[in-house]
Amino acid sequence: MKKIEAIIKPFKLDEVKDALNGFGVAGMTLSEVKGFGRQKGHTEIYRGAEYRVDFIPKIKLTIVAEDSMVDKIVSTIMEKAGSEKIGDGKIFILPVDDAIRIRTGERGKDAL
Amino acid sequence: MKSRKLSPLFFNTIVCFFLISMTAFMIATAALPGMATASENQVLDKAIASYPEALFQGKSQDDIRKELPVSGAYRDETTPIEEEVTVIIDGNPATTSIVRYLTDMEIFQYRGDVLWTCIAAFLVFLMQAGFAMVEAGFTRAKNAVNIMMKNIMDFCMGTIAFLAVGFHIMFAGPGESLFFLGTTGATQWGFAFWLFQCVFAATTATIVSGGVAERTKFTGYLAYSFVICAFIYPTFGSWAWGSLLDGQGWLEGVLGVGFYDFAGSTVVHSIGGWLALAGAIVIGPRVGKFDLNGKPRAIPGHNLPFAVIGGFLLWLGWFGFNPGSTTTFDGNLARIAVMTNIAGAAGGIAAMAAVWFSFKKPDVGMTVNGFLAGMVAICSAVDVVNIWGSLIIGAVAGILVVYSVIFIERILKIDDPVGCISVHGVCGAWGTLAYAFFGVESFSSTVLMAQLIGIGVGFAWAFGTGMVLFIAIKYTIGLRATREEEVTGLDVSEHGNEAYCGFPIDSHA
């Protein structure tokens, strides 16, 4: 079992979600986050004074899936969230020890 | 509010009536040439005979004279008026003064004056909502409740202060008491006039709140609102506008031509702007406004649509502020409304162009300041300018306000969160000066000097008393919130309220 954390541009969310749903990813968790990478921030102007916006709004998708699904999920996110421009985001993959469904107590892949 | 061309009441109808009676007498006396010089009584009798009997209600002149109000300002539709009548007896004109009651037409005019003045006052009252929204929109979410409370309380405190003291200072004649409305309270017109003056006084106080927003201690704010409406605004007002009632202001006759400010570019707006300047200097900039090198940092407002709607409400209010300043129900109000509108539109376009040119984007905040600046500037000469005059006055104000905001922030290092020093102080002074160029038929250096004296005295009075007031508050009840309160936001620390409970707020903003 792996946890996939994908940080993507907010306006790509619907495309990514629909594509993942299409091949059986049953659940995901979404967070509104802010951050910067190589894109850095940008400059805005307010009443004649410039100011830096260092942290740009992004969406973080968290998906826990069986190992066999991971490659397909990653390639789908890369395809749907990519615009070939700087600031498309990153994907992190972490090992997961266990998963538990609170209502029934099921564990492991049955809980996904 | 100031009118040279129209006396506040009845002017037109009195002139009409006078002309009619003159004509009647010229016809009546033409048939009686060569008689001896007329006696006083003969003249009076002839004069009385020229009016319909109903206007004397069967009373003698002496009896009616006892009912005369103290002055024209205490009129009621049932009180008599006094007028000069010239009659021709034996080919010689003779003038006498008679007292009589109002004609139906004059009563209608009187009620029109009361109605229009009240409606205009209601519109000016709406400017309180406009100021509240502009100020809240241009500042941070954590201080929105505080801004609302200040705008509520400066109107409430201002009303009571103006009722108790301010109205007396501004308009009382020698030996007269207008505390708590005084004798004016006995007439309908007194109430209409007071209401219109009261909303003007409160406007001055509420201008200041924008300049000291996001860092002022609430109790300090209450104290200065009261002092402004009780003392600072009415004193300057009495110098410039006292004769609208029973006072006599020295600026009204300065240099023989008098200082001219029709609706208050200086009396209301500059006074408010210079008070805000004093306040912003004494209280200092917000935490984080300037970096260690003194470079200003933007502190973006949390709700620009809110600020724009506030700006529109102020624009609507201005249609009462300027056209209502005639305090007369007549055809002139449409012209004044149009000139007000032209100046506002020109100011908005000019400010947008200036900020677009200098900063590459048409900034909405500056554009709102621009149309407000245009209407601030036009107040002074709005009843006498032509269309080109109001276009130029508004456009110059729109450009002026953009660079004034930048100058005050970058060069003077003064933190004015909403730009009220530039909009009201600087552009009010510009508009007052512009009267000398666009408000008179031929340029006169005496008029220019009179305007400059008014602008200078306004600055010295408002800035001087403002500095004394704010420093006095600083060392007594305290003027500034603590750093911790300011960083937390005045909503929670001063009022225990949240403006947007349940909505996520960026706590780093």
UniProtKB/TrEMBL annotation, chain A:
Pfam families found in the cross-reference section: P-II
Annotated keywords: Nucleotide-binding, Phosphoprotein, Transcription, Transcription regulation
Protein's UniProt keywords contain Hydrolase: no
Record's GO cellular component terms: cytosol
SMART domains associated with the record: P-II
Superkingdom per UniProt: Bacteria
Protein's UniProt name: Regulatory protein P-II for glutamine synthetase
The organism of origin for this protein: Desulfamplus magnetovallimortis
TrEMBL record, chain B:
Keyword entries, A-Z: Ammonia transport, Membrane, Signal, Transmembrane, Transmembrane helix, Transport
Topological category with respect to the lipid bilayer: Multi-pass membrane protein
Signal peptide per UniProt: 1-30
Organism superkingdom: Bacteria
Location(s) in or outside the cell: Cell membrane; Membrane
Residue ranges of coiled coil: none
One Pfam assignment: Ammonium_transp
An annotated GO BP: ammonium homeostasis
NCBIfam families recorded: amt
Descriptive protein name: Ammonium transporter
